[in-house]
C-alpha cells in the first residue's frame, strides 16, 4: 500500500514520495472536449461487419429471439420503488403494476428482466375506472438469462382485445456508479463526509434492470411513479410531484414521493433520482446539484430556458404542450455523458455545471451545446421515438445537428455553427472512411449489438447528412417537413420512411419543382442512410479555349485503399468560382449528381479557381485536377479572405486526407498549408491541426524534426504576436479564444522562445500573487509554464487540483500537471494515481487513469516518466493494475509504442516489455512492436520520403518576408 504520508502539500513530501523508496509497493458525442495539450495519434481503424454493396434497402438479419412477442403490449405502469441509498445500502425493492392489452389469445405474458429477483407475480382484473380490480391468480414466472425474457405463465387463456393488470413484486441491487440502470454514486461534502445518491439511466436497454417492463422503444405507455426514501432526501422524476412527500407508515424515517402521470413514452425515457441535492428554480425549469456546487447551477438554468424556448420556436411545437416542467440534474462521477430523459435530463457534472471564476470558455461551450443536444431530444427521441434501434440516427443525428444550431439560435454571438464543420463533419469523415463501417440504418438484436449502435455514425455522420439535406431543401421547407413528421408521429415510434414522408409533403406544399422530376426525398436520402461511407467527388476541368467544362465523378472514399463500388450517392452539389465568388448556399443553387460521372458547364475562366461544396454543407470530400489545386493554393497565398473560412478549413482537411489516402501527392497539402501564415480564423487552423500533429508525431526524435520545426514556425510567425497569449481581453469572442489557445499551444510546442518565456512568467506571477490564472488561458499557462516550473510552483498547481471540487477544472489541472518535464515531479504525479487513504478520497477512478494517459500524452518526458514508473518493480506494476485495471496498463504500453521514433526510444520500450513480461498480453506486445516498426518504415515509404524532402527544402530555402 502507498504510505499515508503521501499527502502532497509541500515539495519535500512530493519529491520523497516520488523516489524509489516506494519500490516495495507494488485514461465520449455525447461528448469530451478535444485537448490542445495532448498530442493525438492516428485513430485505430473501426472494426465491424463488412458491408456488401447489394440491396441498398436491406434490413440485415439479426437474432430476433431477443425481441418481445407481439401478443401483448403495455398501456400504463404504476411503479413503486424503495431505497435506503442514504445509508449506502445498495439493495432496493419494488412493485410494478402493468396495465396491458392482449392482441392475440395467449396463456403467457412476456416482459424483460435483467438481474432482478422476481418474488411474486399476480394477474388482476381491470375494475371500473381503469384501476386494478380483484386478483385472478398468482402466476408462475421464469427468466431466460440470455434473452432476459421474463415469461409469466397463466392457467387460463387471455382473449384478444382484453385488458388486464400484472402486479410483480421484485428486488434488485443498485449498480455501482456505472451510468447504467438504477445506479448509486457519491460525492464528498464540505466536511469531507461521503454522501450517496441513486439515479437512473435506462437508454438503451437498462430499464429492465430497475423493474420488469416491456423494454423496447416502440412499446410506449404512461407512467405513475412513487419512490420511498429517507425523509432527509428528496426525489425527482420526469413529472412534477403529486403533492408533498407522505410519511411512510412502516418507518418514521422514510417518506414516499409521488409523481403525476406522464405522457405516453418509451421505457428508456423514464427517469428518477433520490438525493440530498439543492434546487435552483427559474420559470418552469429547475437544476438539481449537490449543495457545495450550488453556485455553479446559475448558467445551466439560464441556458436551459433560453435554449428550450429557441428550439420550441424553431420546430413550432412547444415543449410545454406535452410536459409541464423541465429539470436538469448533475450526477457526480458520471463522466461527461448526458441523458435526455423527458422532463429530467441527467448530466455528468463537467458538462452541466459552470463556474466563471474557474471554468473556461471551452467548458461553457460544452455546457451550452450539450444542453442543446439533450433538449433537441425532447422532440427528436422523446416526442417521437425510433420504431426500433435500427433508426437511432433519428434521435442522435438530429440532436447532433441541433446541438450546434440551437446553441447558435440561442447565443448567436458565440458563432457555434462555425464549430459544426470541424467538430462534426470532419470528425465523421475520419470514422466513416473505413471499409467495415456500418450504414446509418443498421439493425440490431441483442443488448450488446444495440449499445454498439451509439457510435460516430449515429451522431456525427447522421448529423452531417441531415444538415446536408436541410441546406439542399432549404431551412423553411425542412422545418415544415419536421413539423409534419412530428405531428404525425407524436407520442409514437418512427422509421426513416416517416421522416421522408414529412419532408416530401413539405416539398409538395412549398417547393414542388426544387428536385429533379420524378425524384423523391426517399430516393435521395436512402442513397445515404442505407449505404455505408461517403463519396469523394472528383472535379476534373477541361480548360478548353472556347468553353469551360468539368467532369464530375463519384466514388466511395476509403482512407487506405481504392475499391470498386457500384453504389451511387445522390449528391447535392454547388460550387463557386474565382471570377465570381459567392459562398452563400441556396436551395436553388444546388444541382444533383445522380450517376457515377457527368459532364457539366462551368463559368470559370481557365485561370480562375473553382470550389465545390460551399461552406462544406455537403457530406463528401472533393478532389480536383492538379491545375485547380494550384489555382486554389495561389489564391490562398495571395489573399485567404477571397475564399470563405469554412471552405478554407475544408480545403486543408480534404487535401491532407486525400494525400494520406494516396489520391494526391503529399506536397499538395504541405504547399497549401503554407498560406496559414496569413490565416486569422480558428476553423482553418484547427483543420490543419491534424496534419501538423501527424508530422510532429512522425518526425519528433529524428534527424528530420528540426526541418519540420522551421516549417511550423513560419506558419505561426505573423499570427502569434497578435494574440496576447498571456492575457484575456473582455472583447474576445469565443472563436478568438479557441484560436489563441491553438496558436499558443503550437508556438510553445515547437519551442517558440517568446511563448515559453511568457507562459513561465505568467505562471510565476500567479504563484507569487497566489492568484489562479484566468480560466480562459489557464490551460496554456499552466501546461507550458509547468514545463520549466520549480517544485514550489508545481505543488501550487497541484494544490489547486487537490482542493477543487469542480470536475471540469480538475480535468484541466490534471492535463496541465502532466505537462511538467521534471522527472521527479512527473514521478510524484504518477504516484498520486495509485494513492490510497483519506487524502485521496476525492480522486475519481477516471481521474486516476487520466493522470497516466495525460502524462504520456503530453510529451516525450511524460513517456519516459511512465516507463520509469513501470520499471520500479513488479509489485508496483501489480498495484498499478489492481488500482487502474489491466486496460490502463495495455493502453500505456500501446501509447508508449506509438510515441517511439528512434533506436534509443525503442531500447527503452524493449526494456519495459522485458520487465513487464507476462503482465501484459502477448497480443499487446506484438502490436507494440508492429507499431514501432511502422513508425520506422514510414521514412522509407513514398509519403515519408517526399514529406521529409519537402520539409528539408522548405527549411533551407530562403523565404520572402
TrEMBL record:
Residues 74-269 form the Aminopeptidase N-like N-terminal domain. One of its GO terms (cellular component) is side of membrane. Residues 609-931 form the ERAP1-like C-terminal domain. It is found in: Cell membrane; Membrane. Keywords: Aminopeptidase, Cell membrane, Disulfide bond, Glycoprotein, GPI-anchor, Hydrolase, Lipoprotein, Membrane, Metal-binding, Metalloprotease, Protease, Signal, Signal-anchor, Transmembrane, Transmembrane helix, Zinc. Its cofactor is Zn(2+). CDD domains: M1_APN-Q_like. Pfam families: ERAP1_C (PF11838), Peptidase_M1 (PF01433), Peptidase_M1_N (PF17900). Residues 300-528 form the Peptidase M1 membrane alanine aminopeptidase domain. Zn(2+) binds at residues 373, 377, 396. GO terms for biological process: peptide catabolic process; proteolysis. The active site is at residue 374. It is a lipid-anchor; GPI-anchor; Single-pass type II membrane protein. It comes from the Eukaryota. Belongs to the peptidase M1 family. This is Aminopeptidase. It comes from Anopheles maculatus.
Amino acid at each position: 500500500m502507498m504510505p499515508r504520508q503521501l499527502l502532497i502539500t509541500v515539495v519535500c513530501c512530493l519529491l520523497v514520495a516520488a523516489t524509489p523508496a516506494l519500490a516495495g509497493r507494488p485514461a465520449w458525442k455525447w461528448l469530451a472536449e478535444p485537448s490542445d495539450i495532448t498530442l493525438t495519434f492516428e485513430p485505430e481503424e473501426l472494426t465491424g461487419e463488412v458491408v456488401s454493396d447489394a440491396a441498398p434497402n436491406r434490413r440485415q438479419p439479426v437474432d430476433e429471439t431477443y425481441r418481445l412477442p407481439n401478443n401483448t403490449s403495455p398501456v400504463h405502469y404504476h411503479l413503486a420503488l424503495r431505497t435506503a441509498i442514504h445509508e449506502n445500502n445498495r439493495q432496493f425493492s419494488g412493485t410494478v403494476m402493468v396495465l396491458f392489452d392482449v392482441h392475440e389469445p395467449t396463456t403467457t405474458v412476456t416482459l424483460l428482466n435483467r438481474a432482478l429477483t422476481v418474488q411474486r407475480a399476480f394477474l388482476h382484473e381491470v375494475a371500473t375506472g381503469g384501476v386494478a380490480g380483484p386478483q385472478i391468480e398468482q402466476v408462475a414466472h421464469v427468466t431466460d438469462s440470455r434473452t432476459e425474457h421474463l415469461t409469466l405463465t397463466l392457467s387460463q387463456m387471455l382473449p384478444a382485445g382484453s385488458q388486464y393488470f400484472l402486479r410483480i413484486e421484485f428486488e434488485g441491487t443498485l449498480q455501482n456508479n456505472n451510468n447504467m440502470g438504477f445506479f448509486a454514486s457519491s460525492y464528498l461534502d464540505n466536511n469531507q463526509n461521503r454522501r450517496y445518491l441513486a439515479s437512473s439511466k435506462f437508454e438503451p436497454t437498462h430499464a429492465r434492470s430497475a423493474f420488469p417492463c416491456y423494454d423496447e422503444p416502440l412499446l410506449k405507455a404512461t407512467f405513475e411513479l412513487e419512490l420511498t426514501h429517507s425523509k432527509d432526501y428528496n426525489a425527482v422524476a420526469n413529472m412534477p410531484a403529486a403533492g408533498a412527500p407522505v410519511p411512510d407508515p412502516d418507518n418514521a424515517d422514510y417518506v414516499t414521493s409521488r409523481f403525476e402521470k406522464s405522457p405516453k413514452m418509451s421505457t428508456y425515457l423514464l427517469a428518477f433520482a433520490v438525493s440530498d441535492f439543492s434546487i435552483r428554480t427559474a420559470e418552469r425549469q429547475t437544476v438539481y446539484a449537490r449543495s457545495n456546487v450550488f453556485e455553479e447551477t446559475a448558467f445551466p438554468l439560464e441556458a436551459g430556458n433560453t435554449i428550450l424556448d429557441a428550439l420550441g420556436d424553431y420546430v413550432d411545437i412547444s415543449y410545454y404542450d406535452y410536459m409541464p416542467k423541465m429539470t436538469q440534474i448533475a450526477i457526480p462521477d458520471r463522466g461527461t455523458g448526458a441523458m435526455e430523459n423527458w422532463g429530467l435530463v441527467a448530466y455528468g457534472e463537467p458538462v452541466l455545471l459552470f463556474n466563471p471564476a474557474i471554468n473556461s470558455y471551452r467548458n461553457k461551450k460544452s455546457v451550452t451545446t450539450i444542453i442543446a443536444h439533450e433538449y433537441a431530444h425532447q422532440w427528436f427521441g422523446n416526442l417521437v421515438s425510433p420504431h426500433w434501434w435500427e433508426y437511432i440516427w433519428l434521435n442522435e443525428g438530429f440532436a447532433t445537428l441541433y446541438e450546434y444550431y440551437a446553441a447558435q439560435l440561442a447565443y448567436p454571438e458565440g458563432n457555434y455553427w462555425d464549430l459544426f464543420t470541424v467538430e462534426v463533419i470532419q470528425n465523421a469523415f475520419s470514422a466513416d472512411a473505413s471499409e467495415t463501417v456500418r450504414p446509418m440504418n443498421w439493425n440490431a438484436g441483442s443488448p450488446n449489438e444495440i449499445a454498439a449502435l451509439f457510435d460516430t455514425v449515429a451522431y456525427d455522420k447522421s448529423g452531417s447528412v441531415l444538415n446536408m439535406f436541410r441546406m439542399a431543401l432549404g431551412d423553411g421547407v425542412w422545418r415544415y417537413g419536421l413539423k409534419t413528421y412530428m405531428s404525425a408521429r407524436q407520442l409514437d415510434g418512427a422509421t426513416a420512411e416517416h421522416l421522408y414522408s414529412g419532408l416530401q409533403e413539405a416539398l409538395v406544399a412549398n417547393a414542388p419543382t426544387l428536385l429533379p422530376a420524378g425524384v423523391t426525398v426517399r430516393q435521395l436520402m436512402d442513397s445515404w442512410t442505407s449505404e455505408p461511407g461517403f463519396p469523394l467527388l472528383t472535379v476534373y476541368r477541361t480548360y478548353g479555349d472556347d468553353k469551360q467544362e468539368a467532369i464530375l465523378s463519384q466514388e466511395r472514399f476509403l482512407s487506405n485503399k481504392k475499391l470498386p463500388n457500384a453504389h451511387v450517392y445522390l449528391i447535392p452539389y454547388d460550387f463557386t468560382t474565382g471570377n465570381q465568388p459567392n459562398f452563400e448556399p441556396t436551395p436553388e443553387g444546388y444541382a444533383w449528381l445522380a450517376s457515377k460521372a457527368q459532364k457539366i458547364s462551368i463559368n470559370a475562366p481557365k485561370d480562375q479557381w473553382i470550389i465545390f461544396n460551399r461552406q462544406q454543407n455537403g457530406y463528401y470530400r472533393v478532389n480536383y485536377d492538379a491545375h485547380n489545386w494550384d489555382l486554389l493554393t495561389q489564391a490562398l497565398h495571395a489573399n485567404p479572405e477571397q475564399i470563405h473560412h469554412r471552405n478554407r478549413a475544408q480545403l486543408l482537411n480534404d487535401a491532407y486526407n486525400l494525400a494520406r489516402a494516396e489520391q494526391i501527392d503529399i506536397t499538395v497539402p504541405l504547399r497549401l498549408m503554407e498560406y496559414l501564415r496569413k490565416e486569422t480564423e480558428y476553423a482553418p487552423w484547427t483543420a490543419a491541426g491534424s496534419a501538423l500533429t501527424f508530422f510532429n508525431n512522425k518526425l519528433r526524435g529524428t534527424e528530420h524534426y528540426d526541418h519540420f520545426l522551421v516549417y511550423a514556425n513560419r506558419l505561426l510567425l505573423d499570427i502569434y504576436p497578435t494574440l496576447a497569449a498571456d492575457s484575456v481581453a473582455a472583447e474576445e469572442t469565443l472563436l478568438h479564444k479557441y484560436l489563441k489557445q491553438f496558436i499558443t499551444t503550437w508556438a510553445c510546442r515547437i519551442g517558440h522562445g517568446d511563448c515559453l518565456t511568457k507562459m513561465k512568467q505568467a505562471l510565476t506571477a500567479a504563484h507569487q500573487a497566489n492568484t489562479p490564472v484566468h480560466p480562459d488561458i489557464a490551460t496554456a499557462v499552466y501546461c507550458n509554464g509547468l514545463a520549466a516550473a520549480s517544485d514550489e510552483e508545481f505543488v501550487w498547481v497541484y494544490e489547486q487540483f487537490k482542493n477543487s471540487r469542480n470536475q471540469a477544472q480538475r480535468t484541466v489541472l490534471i492535463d496541465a500537471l502532466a505537462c511538467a518535464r521534471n522527472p521527479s515531479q512527473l514521478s510524484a504525479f504518477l504516484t498520486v494515481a495509485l494513492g490510497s487513504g483519506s487524502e485521496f478520497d476525492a480522486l475519481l477512478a477516471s481521474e486516476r487513469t487520466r493522470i497516466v494517459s495525460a502524462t504520456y500524452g503530453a510529451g516525450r518526458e511524460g513517456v519516459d516518466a511512465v516507463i520509469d514508473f513501470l520499471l520500479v518493480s513488479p509489485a508496483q506494476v501489480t498495484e498499478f493494475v489492481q488500482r487502474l485495471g489491466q486496460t490502463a496498463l495495455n493502453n500505456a504500453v500501446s501509447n508508449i509504442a506509438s510515441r517511439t521514433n528512434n533506436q534509443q526510444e525503442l531500447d527503452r520500450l524493449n526494456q519495459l516489455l522485458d520487465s513487464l513480461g507476462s503482465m501484459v498480453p502477448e497480443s499487446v506486445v506484438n502490436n507494440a512492436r508492429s507499431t514501432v516498426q511502422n513508425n520506422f518504415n514510414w521514412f522509407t515509404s513514398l509519403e515519408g520520403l517526399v514529406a521529409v524532402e519537402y520539409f528539408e527544402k522548405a527549411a533551407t530555402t530562403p523565404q520572402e518576408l
